[in-house]
């Protein structure tokens, strides 16, 4: 019997939460006679490979202990964090990506047409997200109601935003310096 995403979600959701993560997605693809099981997790502050490897081992133990899965076909397990191509659909997705570049499609509303907005993810207040835009050095902030967002995806971004942009995104001085240090390290490697 093939593995089903709801079955896996039910088995691992509690463990994932106990480890401080949110279970974002479970997918199963069948290839060459075995299931490829991908579990996407995320948490505030992100994660590193060692933590994900430990979580993967724990999830594997839970899955292997389930009699129904133990008797089934072999599977390959991948535990990963969301990639940049994953859509932002929940408030926590916006919060966790503050300061990152995003492309947002906004639905038409009374008095306005559908449009696209590109900028940095700013403050999340209630049901509104601020998008910080830099138009050739002129910085503007636009508030977008979350219920008007039809799609939103983090963009791959090689530019270095100004301190002003990042402050408007709600990042504090320590976080701005941490990101700048990381960017300098990546440029030197």
UniProtKB/TrEMBL annotation:
- Which positions fall inside the Ribosome maturation factor RimP N-terminal domain? 11-85
Q: Keyword Cytoplasm, does the record have it?
A: yes
Q: InterPro entries, from UniProt? A: Ribosome_maturation_RimP, RimP_C, RimP_N, RimP_N_sf
Where, per UniProt, does this protein localize? Cytoplasm
A Pfam family found in this protein is RimP_N
Look up the signal peptide feature and give its range: none
Q: What does this protein do?
A: Required for maturation of 30S ribosomal subunits.
Q: What is this protein called?
A: Ribosome maturation factor RimP
């Amino acid at each position: 019997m093939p593995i089903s995403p709801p079955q896996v979600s039910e088995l691992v959701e509690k463990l994932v939460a106990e480890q401080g993560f949110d279970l974002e997605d479970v997918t199963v693809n069948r290839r060459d006679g075995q299931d490829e099981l991908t579990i996407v997790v995320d948490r505030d502050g992100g994660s590193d490979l060692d933590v994900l490897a430990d979580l993967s081992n724990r999830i594997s133990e839970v899955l292997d202990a389930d009699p129904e899965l133990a008797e089934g076909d072999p599977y390959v397990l991948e535990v990963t964090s969301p990639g940049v191509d994953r859509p932002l659909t929940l408030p926590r997705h916006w919060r966790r990506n503050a300061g990152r570049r995003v492309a947002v499609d906004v639905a038409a509303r009374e008095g306005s047409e559908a449009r696209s907005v590109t900028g940095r993810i700013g403050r999340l207040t209630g049901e509104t997200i601020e998008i910080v835009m830099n138009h050739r050095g002129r910085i503007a902030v636009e508030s977008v109601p979350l219920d008007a967002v039809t799609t939103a995806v983090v963009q791959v971004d090689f530019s270095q935003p100004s301190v002003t942009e990042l402050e408007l995104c709600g990042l504090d001085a320590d976080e701005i310096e941490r990101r700048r240090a990381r960017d300098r390290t990546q440029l030197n490697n």
